[in-house]
Please model this.
Amino acid sequence: MGTVILIGTVAIVVAIVGCFFIWRLDASRAEEVEHTPPPRQAGPALEGRAATPPRPIDP
Model:
């Protein structure tokens, strides 16, 4: 009976520590993405395009 309680307790502790570890990895990745600047768009490639007026919603 003691072995079952020990295994159950260890399983719960491992689950809690694992969830915390995964949560920290996710939070650190979110911070990294938040601080990453958006990619710069190339200026000369966009200059050659003709500006098209917006189309009306109603037909």
